[in-house]
Design goal:
elongated, Immunoglobulin-like, 3-stranded mixed sheet, 14 strands, 9 helices, 420 residues, Helix Hairpins, 34% helix, single chain
């Protein structure tokens, strides 16, 4: 092998090693710009997971460098020497030049069997301890229970303030799970259609949402903030766009938010753009979307005496003569929009409802201080399947309203602006 080629191989190897080290260090240290990272937990369950991951990463890193170091050492020690043989091949070993063979070395074989066994046994013990801790879903200090319902392709949150999930929820919201800081919040995780998986990595691990079953889970945050989540079980066309946000507020802020969520929406003043928008909404949207205080069972297919704002886990409307969807793989429900403007995201948390809000604007001030992402909201109203792939004809995702005029769309958005 020529000296130039040797230098090139050596330099390439060093670059690969250096690049690997840099990537590992960056992935561990730089986590602020990675909202789905488990390496910067802000909740008790998240810390339990990090305490398990970090030592395993350290052990894996040591093993990686030992193994790779041994490979490189053997490569360097027994690299082929020699020069061009004249037939296009570089370097060779004579039969009597091969390194000493060590097949059947009992000490080495026992060593590389026992050492990994011990490492895996230790890791297994810590893994089981961590799993048992995560499976402890007894929430202390909070009576409230939140039913988390996944469907194609968004999350619904039903708040039972008295902890009784056998009765209708006190209020329902979508896309953003709002919780008080420092409190274990018990969750019941379910699905209306296919299997989903609920995951907010900074706060806890993943928990599947399975049709016909209820899985208990707990979530808790140490400090106020907005923590991104993601569905992690492939669930169809827009699985990658099925996100969520967990919003942690101080106890006083949460109480204020909760009281507002329990208020009913009011009709816009007659003669306003919002009033015109309500008429369009009532005709085109109220058959799927609920606005507490405005939509009625009649607009949703039931009789006028039925409760207007609750769907059960299978997509059945809770009201006399409301009917059911026979195919449980079709959810047939849509996000409750009663307080849409108090949220920071929409469309399964895929789009921001306000421009450049982030954490800069306090969550409770979004509807008053935020700049509405009007262009994206209008585009969603006009043609949602174009913005987020769906099968709207099968009740999977929002249908398009391409027949609305620009004035109609402006009026609908004006009405939506009143839902705070």
């Amino acid at each position: 092998m020529s000296s130039r080629l040797k230098a090139l191989v050596w330099l390439s190897s060093l670059l690969v090693i250096a690049g690997t080290i840099v990537l590992i260090v960056v992935s561990i240290v730089v986590t602020d710009d990675h909202p789905l990272s488990t390496l910067s937990p802000v909740g008790r369950q998240g810390r339990d997971i990090a305490r398990l991951i970090n030592p395993i990463f350290i052990v894996a890193g040591v093993v990686f460098f030992l193994v790779q170091g041994a490979v490189l050492a053997l490569w360097w020690r027994y690299r082929v020497g020699g020069s061009d043989t004249g037939d296009g091949e570089y370097g060779y070993y004579e039969d009597d030049e091969f390194p000493e063979q060590i097949h059947g070395n009992d000490r080495l074989e026992i060593a590389w069997t026992i050492v990994p066994t011990i490492l895996l046994a230790v890791i297994s013990v810590f893994t089981l301890v961590g799993l048992f801790a995560l499976d402890d879903v007894e929430a202390s200090g909070e009576e409230m229970v939140v039913t988390v319902i996944g469907q194609q392709w968004w999350w619904e949150y039903q708040y039972h303030l008295d902890g009784d999930t056998t009765t209708p929820p006190d209020f329902v919201t979508a896309n953003e799970l709002v919780i008080p800081v420092g409190v274990d919040i018990p969750l019941e995780i379910k699905s209306r259609d296919v299997i989903h998986s609920f995951w907010v990595p900074k706060l806890n691990g993943k928990k599947d949402a399975v049709p016909g079953r209820s899985h208990d889970w707990v979530i808790q945050a140490d400090k106020p903030g907005r923590y991104r989540g993601q569905c992690t079980e492939f669930c169809g066309l827009s699985h990658g766009l099925m996100k969520t946000v967990a919003v942690a507020l101080t106890p006083a802020e949460f109480a204020q938010w909760k009281d507002n969520q329990m208020t009913l929406a009011a009709l816009p003043a007659e003669g306003t753009d919002a009033s015109e928008g309500w008429e369009i909404f009532n005709q085109q949207c109220a058959s799927c979307h609920v606005v507490n205080g405005l939509t009625t069972a009649a607009t949703r297919g039931g009789d006028t005496d039925s409760p207007p704002d609750t769907w059960d886990i299978y997509g059945e409307f809770n009201g006399d003569n409301a009917g059911t969807y026979t195919d449980q793989l079709v959810a047939g429900a849509a996000p409750n929009l009663t307080h849409l403007m108090t949220r920071g995201t929409f469309a399964g948390s895929w789009f921001d409802l306000y421009l450049d809000a982030g954490d800069r604007i306090p969550y409770l001030d979004l509807s008053t201080a935020g700049t509405l992402n009007r262009g994206e909201l209008e585009a969603w109203v006009i043609n949602a399947p174009e913005r987020k792939p769906a099968k709207a004809d099968d009740f999977r995702g929002m249908i398009a309203f391409t027949g609305l005029s620009p004035d109609d769309v402006d009026d609908v958005v004006a009405f939506l602006r009143t839902l705070d």
